[in-house]
Write a structure and sequence with these properties.
By secondary structure, the chain is α/β, with parallel strands linked by helices. The chain contains twelve helices and eight strands. The protein has a single domain, classed as Alpha/Beta hydrolase fold, catalytic domain (Rossmann fold). It has an eight-stranded mixed sheet with strand order 1-2-4-3-5-6-7-8, sandwiched between helices. Helix 4 packs across helix 5 and helix 7 packs across helix 9. The longest helix has 21 residues.
Length: about 300
């Protein structure tokens, strides 16, 4: 009970910090908004901000330019980089050509990378980190990549992903988007049920935005289900890769950070004291400055 209460306080505090640092603004309100076209004709909306070497942020589940920690992170990174933040397909102002394929998502990132005009640095967050690995393994050019807690299952630490896609699809096809969000956050992500039940009242804007894009959550599960980038295709990811985790994250996520770093030819891991899966921009960004370089 005490651990659940502490977890709830952490998540609430994170939400308050995001609102504090973004002051209610979103990525779209802070940069230059443009679109590009993926290979299958899907329109991909992105925001460009800052100056310096190009850096692309690849968001995780539920997150897009109007939802999640990217506003704070992008604002801090824009001090030294030209930051590209985009709505993954099916989210925000980007299109969603059916049927969904992993190759289509990879082509979306390829299209944004082309807009960068030079080989970019890439920051992948959560399931966006898994998409980043897939893209690099498929030939999308990147100078260096940083991955924050890619949530792969590792041996001995099952995260109950089996059957999750089918359950999500049943909620979505039945029109129960709230039920889909609750299922994903509790049964898949492992958030405290008490917090998830209270989230519509504690964080109504985030809850509404999560419901708007929950139909894309199965896409992330499909990406995570393909572990070839950690096995037979890992040798194709030869660029320097920093896999970052929080020391306070659940053991399964910490084990995944180590497993991903060990699977890659030039991978290394780093754990941030006092941090968990909810990214703190002021803590993460100095680590990225050090790793990516600022000149």
């Amino acid at each position: 009970m005490q651990r659940t209460f502490v977890a709830i306080l952490v998540i609430i505090a994170f939400g308050a910090l995001v609102m504090r640092y973004s002051r209610g603004r979103t990525v779209k309100a802070l940069g230059e908004n443009r679109t590009t076209t993926s290979r299958d004709g899907t329109t991909i909306a992105y925001t460009k901000r800052g100056s310096g070497p190009p850096l692309i942020i690849v968001d995780g589940v539920f997150c897009y330019r109007e939802n999640g920690p990217a506003t704070e992170v992008a604002s801090l990174l824009a001090e030294h980089y030209t930051v590209f933040t985009y709505d993954r397909r099916g989210r925000g102002e980007s299109g969603d050509t059916a049927p969904y394929t992993l190759e289509g998502e990879i082509d979306d990132l390829r299209a944004v990378a082309k807009e960068a005009g030079a080989t970019p640095l890439v920051l992948g967050i959560s399931s966006g980190a898994a998409l980043t690995l897939q893209a690099v393994a498929s030939g999308v050019g990147a100078k260096r990549i940083a991955l924050y807690e890619p949530p792969y299952e590792v041996d001995g630490n099952p995260r109950r992903l089996e059957g999750a896609t089918e359950r999500l699809q049943s909620f979505i096809s039945g029109g129960d988007r709230a039920g889909a969000v609750r299922f994903f956050m509790t049964d898949v992500f492992g958030a405290p049920r008490a917090f998830v039940m209270a989230m519509p009242f504690l964080m109504p804007t985030s809850w509404k935005r999560n419901k708007l894009v929950v139909h894309t959550a199965p896409y992330d599960l499909m990406i995570l289900a393909d572990r070839s980038v950690l096995k037979e295709r890992s040798s194709s990811i030869s660029i320097p890769t920093l896999v970052i985790g929080g020391q306070e994250s659940p053991k399964g996520l910490r084990d995944a950070v180590t497993a991903v770093a060990n699977a890659l030819p030039n991978g290394k891991s780093r754990f941030l004291p006092g941090q968990n899966h909810n990214i703190s921009g002021p803590v993460l960004v100095p680590v990225l400055f050090e790793y990516f370089g600022t000149t």
